[in-house]
Amino acid sequence: MKFIKHAFLLILCITVYHSNIIALENKKNSIEDKKNSSVYSGLKFRSIGPALMSGRISDIVIHPENENLWYVTAGSGGVWKTENSGTTWKSIFDDQKSYSIGCISLDPQNPNIIWVGTGENVGGRHVAYGDGIYKSEDGGESWKNMGLKKSEHISKVIIHPKNSDILWVASQGPLWNKGGERGVYKSTDGGKSWTQTLGDNEWIGATDLIIDPRNPNLLYAATWQRHRTVAGYLGGGPGSAIYKSNDGGVNWIKLNNGLPTSNMGKIGLVLSPQNPDVIYAAIELDRRTGAVYKSTNKGSKWIKMSDAVSGGTGPHYYQELYASPHNFDELYLADNYMQVSYDGGKTFSRMNESEKHVDNHAIAFKKTDKNYLLVGCDGGLYESFDKTKNWKFIDNLPLTQFYKIAVDDDEPFYNIYGGTQDNNTQGAPSRTDNIHGIRNSDWFIILGGDGHQPATEPGNPNIVYAQWQRGNLNRHDRKTGENTNIKPQPEFGEKTERFNWDAPILVSPHNPKRLYFASQRVWKSNDRGDSWETISEDLTNNINRMSTPFYGSKQKWNNAWDVRAMSNYSTITSISESPIEEGLIYVGTDDGNIQLTENGGKSWRKINFQKMIDLPETAFVNDIKADIHDKNTVYAVFDNHKFGDFNPYIYMSKNKGSTWKKISSNLPENTLLWRVVQDHINSNLLFLGTEFGLYFSNNKGKEWIKLDGGMPNISVRDIAIQKRENDLVLATFGRGIYILDDYTALRTFNNKEEKSKLFSVRDGYCYNQKRILGGSKKASQGDNYFVAENPPFGVEFTYYLNEKILSKKEIREKKEKKTEAEQGIISIPDWETLETEKKEIYPQIWMFIYSENYIIKKIKAKNSKGFNRVSWNLLTESKSIISSKNLNEEKKGYMVSPGKYSAQLFKQVEGEFISISEKIFFNVRQLTESSIKGSSISIISEFKDDLYNSNENANNLLENIKDLKTKIDIMLKAYERATSLDKNLHSSLLNNRIKILDLEKKFGGSQVRKEIGEENEYPTIWSYIWSASNGAYTTYGPTKSHKKYLEIANKMLLDIEINYKKIENTIKPLEVQLKKINAPKIKE
Known about the structure:
This protein is α+β, with helices and mostly antiparallel strands. The chain folds into 5 domains: 1-39; 46-394, YVTN repeat-like/Quinoprotein amine dehydrogenase (Methylamine Dehydrogenase, Chain H); 408-544 and 569-751, YVTN repeat-like/Quinoprotein amine dehydrogenase (Methylamine Dehydrogenase, Chain H, 7 Propeller); 792-826 and 834-925, Immunoglobulin-like; 937-1076. Strands 61, 64, 65, 67, 68 and 69 form a 6-stranded mixed β-sheet that branches. Strand 55 and strand 56 form a beta hairpin. The protein starts with a helix and ends in an 8-residue tail after the last helix.
């Protein structure tokens, strides 16, 4: 017995030891992962919107003391703040672990304290999950997670009106699984600890919670029993009910007097602001039916008012109930089309939404305006100032949820197409040729409904394939704007096709007219969808969804089923054909299948999931990809989150699926995966879209590194590579489209070997940026005008520094810090060291641009460890005079002409330029040709040179004239202080002053005429130069008139310069004469 006890203690010690080792190793790996990611932070993703139709809003709060300050939460896009009623916005939750938000509340005692419940509070098929409740004490500037990390979906937070330490949370709990932290939770210590007071530990959570404003001990709660899987959805059960607490939420009483006795689903509650004894409840019942109930005695008795219930996607998606703060019995029921009642729920009518997006989720009212409503829906945020008669769309919130994307090969700029949640299939250019950027008006709709996977035809950017849910595939013609429905249908007598909600489409890499499309079987078309044939039988497990377990067991037919607005089950979800071997096709399904054919569909082989380590049998195949470079290699991405498993599953096979290797390696736990793509040049370079951002691997999955520069924490649902431009395009589910422009550097970079490197660069475009709006950027459209960034104009360079180049001061401070940390010794520098540091020219990184072997531009670049980017705007170095007056001004040269150029990276240490990279070479190309044939590139280039030289000569000469004028004024002042008089000297100074003013007049015109706005009697030199300059920056080039104007300007310049020299030569002897009359010394 003693031996057993000692053996047990030994095993326990070993277990604890190994647990600690694993924990330390995980912590070390986490730090190393962050360190690796920081190296790449200089590679910034570029958001291109859209805000055209925005995205799903989950909650809204208007500040109680400042009605211009709003907080708006997105179902999967974070928390946004505006201090000017939506004119401008700030995203204030980007760096937190969750991006999905269910609700937001302000502390009544201090509205600067904000509570956010993460995890969207609907029961939809696409819902994202959260990690608990967050608190901010500074208006959203910083956040702290306050627990309930296993809640996943929080629907309401209530703060005690007089005690900020007391608060209650309604947690719906996990949607896809039992358990977690669900029900009503109470905290009495400001969120430091939580106690569950209502609900259970399996399936019953809480979906709504209200408090009597007169008595904080009186609360009402709605519980909700629901369960969704990939197969189906049960939206109710005996656990759904209404409860009341008289002791501040410690104990609860179930209310049932007058309420339905059948199964209930999602319930919305609201108190009457005018009489809190009155409670309204919107209750979901079986089969998408429901009713609105009212109690006039604090819930003791309920009366059914009507059969009103949310419809559309289903009550689980809406059911929020709002009461007007201005009118008794005025109710708003969130629905596909908002329902309004003015008689306490007896009758409901549809709110006017003829010019507004539907699928409503949140309403906010203003205390000061009874006609005002602020409404959040799937299409974004709308406000009405006349009680819903008219709506204003807030069109500057980029919250669109994209499922899938595709890119075309249009020139000069490719287009991006994306299928969105409830916001159609949208398209936009990847960049524009205007100075503003990508505006909402640059986006366009090619197909309505929920958009899903699009596709484009290589070589023909006018053909785009788009679809709405369940396989409604269309071929869009961009020339005509027409859509042709090409959804394949079964033959007469065959059963209905089972298309996934997001059915997969593939344009064959071997024939651009050939399409593959899938339901439960694979369809093939060789004529762009005009006709179809099946090339497989049912490749799924063909499971009856009703037979799958819910609430842990098989359910009866008369339970709360609702599968209307969700995908079919046992469907094909992904298709891939090998670009190397025609007819080698892989498909994946939603019910745990991968099958492949090597003969174009004549026969199929099923992959055995048991050969994949750790892979659940239920795994949904999110993506399957044939390797671009090796016909035997294939990648598979799996998703098991609809069974409550959020872990990452990605595998690689090198023998067409016979054996598999798991390559999730160092990916974080609880990070489900969506999409994998392979680089078309480097076979080892993979990109992976996950629930929480983008990862890449340059060794086929042995190690993954997060790429998040310029991006919030967000779900990346799809990835596309535009091969010509080497752009990485991301579809996010809640923050629109992001582009990493030219990721070429990732192909060749070796973090362990590189010291400093300038990477190859793509060619730049030379053109005049259009000013469609008149000015630059937002022009005169106002601060609310939405514009997404273009890439920097010109050429953008990518370079890497293994270390920042430190100044002498930084080197000293680094050594001192190390000494203090290791030895505890504090060092004090001597005076000589400090003086030397003060005199040092600070180290700098420079990019030199060359035309042939001549340096035409030096550009200051960032001196920062890791990847950096710097752009050249195609302007040469300025040749303007440098003086003390303009020492810190950035003078511009002229735009270069199309041609060959090179670049090299330098460091400047102690003022000396030292090269730290090889030269790279690139071209500057003309973007477009003029409609009318004009001058050649060489003539335009020569004219630019002449014009620039004339302009610089004019500027320099004018500076000299001004300096000479100043000198004469100084000499006149000296004459006034002289002890003797010399009339001839004084007369000469005055005459030369008049002459110099006349020369100045030839540049700037008559100052007298300017006083009243009268034009000059004769054109000035600047008017001729300006007129000539209009011929230098167009593809057409200079006209005969432009050349003539430049000749006139040059002639005037020569004449002025001759006269200037005469005056200058006259002035010099006068300085000697000033000395003779004992005038003070002069200094220019």
